[in-house]
Design goal:
alpha+beta, 4 domains, six-stranded mixed beta sheet, 29 strands
C-alpha cells in the first residue's frame, strides 16, 4: 500500500510539474487572446536619424467565426514622429482565418544643419539618382519585411491568461488530495486515481476548448517591439482590442507630422461632444482639423475646439505645417504672369479637361531656390491651390531625384490618409546651377474625389494568395484608365515577373503587365 501510494504521488507531482512548465511557456510565448493573434514588425532593427521606419501590425483571426469591431492602435515612443499612415484604425471586421495588416512610416528627424551643409548633402545625394531607401539591414541579419512580416522574436508579448486559471485549479485540487490522503487513508488509492485522471485530461486538453464558440469574446492585446534609432533604444507598442457593438462608435483623435493633440479617443454615441486641442512642435504651426468620415467642428481652424461625433466611426486629424512654409505666398495665375514678366522663357500654363486644376507650368512658378528635397516641397506651396493641394508636405511622399548638368528633377507621389495614390505624382524641375524653379507638373487627384473611397479592404491578402504567387504587395488607391472619376482601393501584387493590380473590394483584376525578372 505504501509503495503504491508513493508511486501515485510521484506520478501526480511529475504531471503537475510538466503542467506548470507548460503554463509558464505559454504565457511567455503567446501574443494571442480569444483566437486573435497580433504581430508587430519593423523592416529593420537599427536605424539612423532621418531614416524611414516602416512598422507593420498584423492581426490574424484564428477563430472559426468572424470577429467584428477590432481596433488597432500604434503607440510611437517619444522621439519618433508619424510620417505617413494612420496609427489608429477602428471597426475592422476580420473574417475567420484571415489576417488584417496595417503599415505606417515613422521617422526621427536628423539634427538640423546649416543651409550650406544641407545643400551640399542634398546635391551629393542627388548624384546617385534615383534614390531608393534600403529595406534590409545586413548588419543585423534582419531582412525587410514590409507588409509580409510574419513574426518578431524580440517582441514582448501579452496574451491569453486562461492557462493561469487552469494552474490555480490544479493547485486547489492538489491541496484537496493531500487532505483526503490524511483523512481517508484507506480510500486513498481511489481518490488519487480519480485525481490522476483529472490532471491528465486538463494537461492534455487546451484550455481554449472550454471557451464558448461565439463571436462575442473581448480582446485586449499589447505587443512591443524595441528598435535602435541613432544609438537610442526605443519601444513601439501595438494595442489590439475589440469594441463592444453597443458601446457607440469609435472616434480616433490623431496628429499629423509636426505636432501633438489632446483629446480622448474611444467609443462615443452619435452627437457626443469631445474637447480637442492641437499643439504644434517648434518650427511648426497648426493649420486645421479634419474628419475622415463626418462629424462637425465648432471651429476647424482653431487649435482648441469641440468636435461633435457623427453617427458612425471616424478619425479626427490635426494638420500642421512648417512655419516657413505657411508664410509662402500661394500664387494665382496672375501672380505667375507678373513673376515671369521679364523672364528669359515664356510662361505656359496647362489645365486639366474641366479646367479645375493646373497640370503643367513651364516657367518660373516660385521664388524659392530649389536645391534639396525640403526646398522642392516648399516650392510646391507656391502653387498648391492651382495644382489641387492643401498641404503638400502631408499629401506628398518623396520618391526620387534625377539630374543632369542643366536640370534637377524632384519627384513626389501623392498619398491620402497614408495610402499611396497609384500613378499620381508631382515633379519639380529646377536649374541645376542656380536652383531656379523652372517647371512643375502634377497629376494629383482632388480631395473631393478621394474622400468618397472606402479605405478598408473587403478582400484579404491571404485570400488573394490562394490565386496568385505574391512576392510582395502594397495597398493603394487606383484611379487610372476607367477609374479616374471613381477610384478604388486596390492591391498592387508583385507576382514573379508580373505586376497585377487587384480591386480590394471584389478581387477583380484592374491591370496586369510584365516586368523585368532582374532583381
Amino acid at each position: 500500500m505504501k509503495k503504491t501510494l508513493s508511486v501515485l504521488l510521484a506520478i501526480v507531482m511529475t504531471i503537475c510539474m510538466f503542467t506548470a512548465m507548460t503554463v509558464v511557456a505559454s504565457a511567455a510565448e503567446t501574443d494571442s487572446q480569444s483566437g486573435i493573434e497580433a504581430t508587430l514588425v519593423t523592416d529593420k532593427n537599427i536605424y539612423s536619424a532621418g531614416e524611414d521606419i516602416k512598422v507593420t501590425v498584423d492581426v490574424k483571426n484564428t477563430n472559426t467565426y468572424n470577429v467584428d469591431n477590432v481596433n488597432v492602435v500604434l503607440k510611437l515612443p517619444e522621439g519618433l514622429t508619424l510620417k505617413s499612415g494612420d496609427v489608429s484604425i477602428s471597426n475592422v471586421n476580420i473574417a475567420a482565418g484571415e489576417t488584417y495588416s496595417k503599415e505606417v512610416v515613422a521617422i526621427k528627424e536628423a539634427p538640423k544643419v546649416s543651409t550650406d551643409e544641407s545643400s551640399k548633402e542634398s546635391m551629393d545625394e542627388s548624384s546617385a539618382a534615383p534614390i531608393d531607401n534600403p529595406n534590409d539591414d545586413p548588419s543585423t541579419g534582419n531582412p525587410g519585411t514590409g507588409n509580409n512580416g510574419n513574426g518578431n522574436a524580440n517582441s514582448q508579448q501579452t496574451g491569453d491568461n486562461s492557462n493561469m486559471v487552469l494552474w490555480v485549479v490544479l493547485i486547489v485540487l492538489f491541496v484537496a488530495v493531500i487532505f483526503f490522503i490524511v483523512k481517508f487513508r484507506k480510500k486513498v488509492t481511489k481518490v488519487l486515481g480519480l485525481f490522476l485522471c483529472a490532471v491528465m485530461v486538463c494537461a492534455i486538453v487546451p484550455a481554449g476548448v472550454f471557451a464558448a464558440e461565439s463571436g462575442t469574446n473581448t480582446v485586449d492585446i499589447t505587443v512591443d517591439k524595441t528598435i535602435t534609432v541613432d544609438g537610442s533604444k526605443l519601444t513601439i507598442k501595438a494595442m489590439v482590442e475589440t469594441a463592444p457593438s453597443d458601446g457607440g462608435y469609435c472616434i480616433d483623435i490623431l496628429s499629423s507630422y509636426g505636432g501633438t493633440v489632446k483629446g480622448v479617443s474611444g467609443n462615443y454615441k452619435a452627437d457626443s461632444k469631445i474637447d480637442i486641442e492641437a499643439t504644434p512642435d517648434d518650427g511648426w504651426i497648426f493649420v486645421n482639423w479634419e474628419s475622415a468620415n463626418g462629424g462637425k467642428f465648432e471651429d476647424n481652424k482653431s487649435s482648441k475646439t469641440t468636435f461633435t461625433t457623427p453617427d458612425n466611426s471616424t478619425t479626427v486629424v490635426a494638420r500642421f505645417i512648417r512655419k516657413e512654409q505657411s508664410e509662402i505666398h500661394d500664387n494665382t495665375e496672375d501672380d505667375l504672369i507678373a513673376l515671369n514678366k521679364n523672364a528669359e522663357y515664356d510662361l505656359e500654363i496647362e489645365y486639366n479637361d474641366d479646367e479645375t486644376q493646373v497640370e503643367f507650368i513651364s516657367g518660373k512658378y516660385s521664388e524659392i531656390n530649389v536645391n534639396s528635397i525640403d526646398t522642392a516641397i516648399s516650392s510646391i506651396y507656391s502653387v498648391k491651390s492651382l495644382i489641387g493641394l492643401t498641404d503638400p508636405a502631408s499629401e506628398l511622399s518623396f520618391s526620387a531625384v534625377n539630374h543632369d548638368e542643366y536640370i534637377c528633377a524632384y519627384s513626389f507621389g501623392q498619398i491620402y490618409n497614408g495610402i499611396p495614390v497609384y500613378g499620381r505624382t508631382v515633379t519639380v524641375n529646377a536649374d541645376s546651377d542656380s536652383g531656379e524653379a523652372r517647371a512643375i507638373s502634377s497629376s494629383v487627384l482632388p480631395k473631393s474625389v478621394l474622400s468618397s473611397i472606402s479605405l478598408t479592404p473587403s478582400v484579404s491578402i491571404e485570400n488573394l494568395s490562394k490565386n496568385y504567387v505574391i512576392n510582395s504587395y502594397e495597398l493603394v488607391i487606383y484611379s487610372l484608365n476607367d477609374y479616374e472619376e471613381s477610384p478604388v482601393l486596390a492591391y498592387v501584387l508583385d507576382s514573379d515577373g508580373e505586376i497585377i493590380i487587384v480591386d480590394a473590394d471584389n478581387a477583380d483584376v484592374l491591370l496586369r503587365f510584365q516586368t523585368s525578372n532582374d532583381r
